[in-house]
Amino acid sequence: MKVLIVDDEEDVRQSIRLLIPWSEYGIKQVLEACDGNNAIDIVMTEKPEFIFTDIIMPGKNGTELLTWLQQNHNQGKTIVISGHDDFKYIQHTLKNGGLDYILKPIDRYEIIKSFENALNNWKVEEAKRNIDVKRNQVISQTKPAFLDKMFSNLILQPHSNQIAFEELNKEFHIRNYNQFQMAILSTDMLQEKILQKYANHIDKLDFILLNICNEILAKSAEGYAFKHLNKENEIVLIIWKNFNHFDAKLRKINDAFMEILHTPFHIGISSINLFPGGLQIGYKEAKLSLRQSNYLVGQEYIHQFKGKASEISNTLFFSDYSEAIVIAIKSNEKKQIDKAISKFIQAIKELNSVTLDQLEYWRHEFYLMKSYLFKEISFEEKFELIHKHVYFPLNKDGRLYLDLFKKELTQYCEVFAEKLADERRKNQNIIFDIKRYIDNNYHEHLLLQSIADQFFISREYISRKFKQEFGLNPSDYIEKIRIEKAKILLMNNDLYISDVASAVGYQDGRYFSKVFKKVVGVTPMIYKSSLKN
User: Fold this and answer.
1) Which residues form the domain of 334?
2) In whole angstroms, what is the distance from residue 4 CA to residue 53 CA?
3) Percent of the chain residues past pLDDT 70, beyond the cut
4) Where is the Response regulatory domain (predicted)?
């Protein structure tokens, strides 16, 4: 913290310096000024928390300085030290935020007491300022998510969602407008460099896009851009005035995307509709204009609503090629996979148009094929690449980048093939068969010797290999899986502890309780009670 002493007499400034033990109060620096003008310069650069000032000084005097401080630095605490016992000066001091008026000659006890009062006053206000800053930070962080939710809900129920309408009216005064126009930007279609940078961080990309959109829309307070929470990979822009400038605004937004992200985005625009009743109509129009535009040819990024649905129909199905792709994946041969995918890509090249509707339908068929393959071998493990969202890559002209699309699909299928092959190898491994046997029969009276007899191998071999593969010996694994199943059964209020014990393979309820406490840390009864609480 800093203190500024303002007085035209140097000996007075020096006296104030010596009267107060500044370091004991956390003051790091004591500054001096010889008049009001000098003081203003110092306040503007140093921002001192406390100011001691005389009233009568050459140049800008103390009363003028107090007025300036009240207007420009009112968080600082000011104490006047003057040789003039004049009520008008005292009144001016209090009126302009001064905390105290001390008469010269200065009494040490009085000035220390006055400074302590100013320090306590500043600390209270600083604590409140810090709370306000944190509150504003929380509000600024949560406000966009709140507005996203309100706009998304209003699109979903434009007639009946009065709560969302009122909340948005508080923020944007939308009650003053009876028309709107809408645009939709999809992050399902990304250029190669954006795909490489943001495919696994789509929320970060959404944040950048929304900031750019709202930076441009906010300048004229004519609309707002939000993330549609009910639809994946979709940003919606809505304006309620200056409709004749909307196309130009969107092009300006795309120019900003080019400058910051080095790529434009496809945007679909609705016609002008009534607000708020026509929100669903406007949303469908904007989406239709985006989804049914041709992404195989042309160079346009802004897609206007044509007034009706396109007559372009889906004439190519991924499912017509999936059987060959499935066979190639099962073979785990990269050449076969590449050949099968190439046939599908070649068929796309022979089309006259490709719409977002078609692309999404192909993606849906692709996911169905993947589900079929996983279900065939009861595949349950999670792999990041396998569960990664399939995006549609665009070239620098904004058209479907078929070579990269082929590369992406081929990479996916090669990963599937390797994981499927791994899973088959595991299924053929006897230790995994034993684990599966335990998983299915944990509730039975399982002994290691009986398991060994079941699989015609020694118990020592099972113990050694099982621990190498899973990090636990078979007995500990049986105990672990039984306790995990027991924790689930304890959620059922209708089951007694003895019932749960029997269901997971313990015939002795007391022994079950002992084992449960060893693993979980509390008895089954206490655990069950905690679930109720």
Assistant:
1) 319-427
2) 8
3) 93
4) 2-119
Sequence letter at residue 510: R
DSSP output for 158-183: TTT-HHHHHHHHHHH-GGG--EEEEE
Q: Are strands 29-33 and 2-6 parallel, antiparallel or unpaired?
A: parallel
pLDDT, one tens digit per residue, over 75-134 is 899 999 988 888 888 888 888 888 898 888 888 999 999 999 999 999 998 888 888 777
Tokens 């009126």 belong to 95
Q: Where are the alpha helices (DSSP H) in 157-298?
A: 162-172, 192-198, 202-218, 246-261, 279-291
Residue 203 within a domain: yes
Element (H, E) at 235: strand 234-239
- Please name the helix (run of DSSP H) or strand (run of DSSP E) that holds residue 224, with its range, or none: strand 223-227
Cα→Cα distances 315→309, 311, 347, 351, Å? 17, 12, 10, 9
Phi, psi dihedrals of residue 98, rounded to the nearest 5° = -65, 140
Closest CA to 183 of 298, 265, 260, 296: 265
Distance CA 261, CA 400 (A): 19
DSSP 15-54: HHHHHS-GGGGT--EEEEESSHHHHHHHHHHH--SEEEE-
Whether 193 and 244 share a structural domain: yes
**Among all chains, which residue has been given the structure tokens 């996916």?**
412
Q: Under a CB-based contact definition with an 8 Å cutoff, are residues 52 and 5 in contact?
A: yes
Q: Are residues 466 and 447 in the same domain?
A: yes
Q: Residue 380: is its pLDDT beyond 60?
A: no
For 11-37, what is the mean pLDDT?
Answer: 91
Amino acid at 351: L
- Residues in Cβ contact with 19 at an 8 Å cutoff, skipping those fewer than 6 apart: 106, 108, 111, 112
Which residue(s) pair with 302 in the sheet? 267
Do residue 300 and residue 345 come from a single domain? no
Contacts of 59 (CB under 8 A, 6+ apart): 35, 36, 37, 38
How far apart, in whole angstroms, are the C-alpha atoms of residue 94 and residue 80? 10
Greatest distance between any 2 Cα atoms in the chain = 109
**Number of compact structural domains in the chain:** 4
The Cα–Cα gap between 365 and 354 comes to 16
